[in-house]
Specification:
With about 270 residues, the protein is of the alpha+beta class. Helices cover about 30% and strands about 30% of the residues. The strands form four sheets. Strands 1-2-3-4 form a four-stranded antiparallel sheet, with helices on both faces. Strands 5-6-8-9 form a four-stranded antiparallel sheet, with helices on both faces. A hairpin with a 2-residue loop joins strand 1 and strand 2. Helix 1 (about 1-15) runs antiparallel to helix 3 and helix 3 crosses helix 6. The longest helix is centred in the N-terminal third of the chain and has 34 residues, at about 30-60. Residues about 1-25 have low confidence and may be disordered.
């Protein structure tokens, strides 16, 4: 499923990037950045949704005592979706307590682990758990909400690439979407922390139900840290199910339409 996601987003990105006079003028670095933003943004969305829907089933199917032992979850791709394993710790080793399979926003199967089951995690899952714990221990940032970060950990895109750990400010009020307070960390194949970045300089919240106005069909934000939209804008567009118009100013003013699975340059300024 993961390779299919990458193929779809890559094709969509290339369709945009190779048609039209404005798209043809984009530098190669911008083209690569847009393809990467689409790929990562859709991954973040799928992983975040998988954790969301399987959590509901986990709460329903496990006992309070079992839930008290859960320290986190780890997500890995499978042929037709994602597997979310909720784990605890025993003797410094993570072990499975509950597992749910998800495709899009649907739980396709689940398993509650009993005392006689094999509760060991795979080597890949353990690496992802340790990478997440490394970031949790190092991160000094605070979420832009009175709540803990949501965590999305993506496996390496290719052998040797870093694990990407995203700390995402959660939504705490209906129709209020946090556009600020999101961070990305890299963790190397050897478990060592690497580069990190913030996606905004401050906390920003946008609403899709402004007072005294009709329900907006899109949201608009200015982004000063990159010349193109990022994976966070793609994830937010998919999550909100609306276009997000992104204004960038480097090296020149541009306006982009992030529409879920595609990005369009709609104004190329001076």
């Amino acid at each position: 499923m993961q390779s299919l996601v990458r193929t779809i987003t890559l094709v969509l990105a290339l369709c945009f990037l190779t048609t039209g006079p404005a798209a043809a003028a984009l530098p190669a670095a911008d083209e690569a950045a847009l393809i990467q933003a689409l790929e990562r943004g859709e991954q973040i969305y799928l992983y975040d949704q998988a954790a969301w829907v399987t959590t509901d089933v986990m709460v329903e199917k496990t006992t309070p005592a079992a839930r008290a032992r859960i320290d986190g979850w780890v997500i890995t791709p499978k042929a037709d979706g994602l597997t979310v394993v909720y784990y605890g710790w025993k003797d410094a080793t993570p072990y499975a307590i509950f597992a749910g399979d998800a495709k899009e926003k649907t739980v396709t199967g689940f398993r509650v682990f009993g005392p006689d089951d094999d509760t060991s995690l795979t080597a890949e899952q353990i690496r992802l758990v340790k990478a997440t714990d490394t970031v949790r221990a190092l991160a000094e940032q605070q979420p832009c909400a009175n709540a803990r970060f949501n965590t999305v950990t993506l496996p390496p895109a290719r052998p040797g690439d870093p694990i990407l750990v995203y700390l995402l400010t959660p939504q705490t009020r209906e129709h209020q979407f946090p556009f600020g307070g999101h961070f990305r960390y890299e963790v190397g194949a050897d478990g060592s922390p690497g580069a990190s970045r913030a996606f905004t300089r401050s906390c920003i919240t946008l609403s899709d139900t402004p007072e005294g106005a009709g329900k907006p069909v899109a949201l608009l934000i200015t982004h000063l840290l990159d010349p193109t939209p990022t994976e966070i804008h793609v994830w937010l567009s998919l999550w909100i199910d609306k276009p997000v118009y992104v204004g960038t100013a480097t090296p020149k003013q541009r306006i982009w339409a992030v529409e879920g699975h595609r990005i369009r340059l709609i104004k190329d300024g001076e």
